[in-house]
Amino acid sequence: MQQRPNPGPRRPMTRREYEMLQRQRRRQNIIALGILAAIAVVIIVAVVLILSPSKPARDKAVQPVNVASVPVEDGAASSGGTSVDLSDPRDGSAAAATEAANVDPTPVPSPTPVPTPRSGNLRSARIRVVGDVMVCESQLKAYKSTGYDFHPEFAEISDVLSNADYTIANMEGTVGKYNKSSYSGYPQFNCPQTILEALKDSGVDFLTLANNHMLDRFFDGLKNTVGWVQQYGLDYVGAYRTQEERNTPTIYEVNGIRIGFVAYTHSTNSIERLAKGLDPGATAYGVPYIQKADIEGDIRRLREAGAEVVIALPHWGEEYVKEPSGSQVKYAKRLAMAGADIIIGSHSHIVQPMGYKDFVDASGNPRRVFLMFSMGNFLSDHYKIQSTDCGMVLDFTINENSDGTFSCDNVGYIPTYCWQPTEGDVRILPSGKYLSGGPVGMSAAAHDRLVASFYEITAVLGDQFQVLDS
User: Fold this and answer.
1) What is the DSSP string of 27-76?
2) How far apart are CA 388 and CA 416, in angstroms?
3) Which residues pair with 184 in a beta bridge?
4) In whole angstroms, what is the distance from residue 237 CA to residue 356 CA?
């Protein structure tokens, strides 16, 4: 193999050649740094565009008042804890079977939103929720002489209702006079709109209207109710005067957190079938029935409109039963899989269990949902059926996490009792405050019942959640 000749010793570089080489290397380094800087700028811009928060959702639009929606004036003058079992339904009744047949057993969930990581101050909102607000016949008689001033009913509990960033209640029945009909209690609830003033003044901010009594004064009564709720400045969900209102996502901001709401009822007591000449709009869009609702689509549209947290408020199950029915379990699963973060039910008139449910959705994402099956009665003259004379104030905090997700934390509750000093004069009391002795004028029998109701509620809810004083 031929060898290459030895080139011999290299000639030393002159100073001029050395300086030229140094200048060439400096130019190459500058060019390389420029290229790297340009690439870094492109990467930073791309990351900012991808992770920038979505446009804040506006508050739910108040529909313009038209002739059909003007309220009718009164003729004379509102983390941690137990795991909830969402196993297969235990309800074998024919009604539950019929209802189950209308439910897609494998609903397609709405897309899971991609959390936006945040730094700096994280948002937080303390929420309180109460159950059924009912004005019965005896209450109408007791308060007629006062011009239906219902403020005394809430006097002992208003501090509790106000001790939150946002307070929610279920308004069971229609408000405001319907034509020339008198106000009425069971079975077709219609009470003076002054109940809304008392609720508002006592700290309530939001009403869910989807319940089995929302057509008690037919579609006109529903429209009248929505009009009065708006006039008193209360937020709401669950009753709609037009298809446009039904299609508008319900989102309200609380401490900067955009909370979306959905609400459904399992029935309207067959009024939709028995009432002659009922406007078809009442069932087409006025009342959202859970059996035929597009739950997945409703929650997806909330997310698309900017909702960061979704609260579902179903009116469901069986009355006077302390355990959830099979249909409640079925719809709880469906709501959770569709993307609801918090589910708070009503209708049983008795407190039912609450807790957390961990599961993996259809997209493979782990989720934790807080579920309260029923809040019980908050305001009512019920006393003949065990445990219907009491309820609770649910308390929890929605916290924003550093990874952009939200959690339902610090769950607690305040047991309440409906005391009647005289027939129909209902006073809502925070039970824990009076365990050692009732307010002035309370009989020994009434105090015994208050104490018993307190322990009935704590027995249902267990010891995993804190009982609050106020």
Assistant:
1) HHHHHHHHHHHHHHHHHHHHHHHHHSPPPPPPPPPPPPP-GGGSPPPPS-
2) 11
3) 190
4) 24
Return left, alpha or beta for 347; rule: phi > 0 is left, psi -120 to 50 is alpha, else beta: left
Residue 67: both structure tokens together: 């002739």
Q: What is the pLDDT of residues 202-243, one digit of tens each?
A: 999 999 999 999 999 999 999 999 999 999 999 999 999 999
Three-class secondary structure of residue 156 per DSSP:
coil
- Report the first-to-last Cα separation within the chain, whole angstroms: 99
* Integer Rg of the chain from CA: 30
Statement: 79-467 belongs to CATH 3.20.20.70: no
Q: Kindly tell me the sign of the dihedral angle through the C-alpha atoms of 336, 339, 341, 346.
A: negative
User: 8-34 pLDDT, tens per residue?
Assistant: 444 455 555 545 555 666 666 666 666
Spatial contact of 245 and 63, defined as CB atoms under 8 Å apart: yes
Q: How many CB atoms within 10 Å of residue 81?
A: 18
Q: Alpha carbon of 369 to those of 260, 290, 354: distances in Å?
A: 15, 19, 11
Q: Are 309 and 398 in contact (CB under 8 A)?
A: yes
Tokens standing for residue 222: 């529903």
Angle, alpha carbons 129-133-135 (nearest 5°): 165
Alpha carbon separation from 325 to 19, 92, 194, 319 (Å, rounded): 89, 9, 35, 10
User: Per residue in 241-294, pLDDT tens?
Assistant: 999 999 999 999 999 999 999 999 999 999 998 888 899 999 999 999 999 999
Q: Give the three-state DSSP class for 126.
A: strand
| Owner of token pair 């006039």 | 231
What is the spatial distance between Cα 291 and Cα 102, in angstroms, rounded to a whole number?
Answer: 6
